[in-house]
Design a protein that fits this description.
With 34 residues, the chain is an all-alpha fold. The chain has helices at residues 7-19, 22-29. α1 packs across α2 (22-29). Residues 5-34 form the HTH lysR-type domain.
Length: 34
């Protein structure tokens, strides 16, 4: 059960997929894409 991703991880994954890239998702999240 500990191998399940955290909800925040899923949120980030969904944003990356929705924005089609890490840079746009990072901008929306207010974090560095690095």
């Amino acid at each position: 059960m500990n191998n399940l991703p955290l909800l925040n991880d899923l949120r980030v994954f969904m944003l990356v997929a929705r924005r089609a890239g890490f840079a746009a998702a990072a901008e929306e999240l207010g974090v560095s894409p690095a």
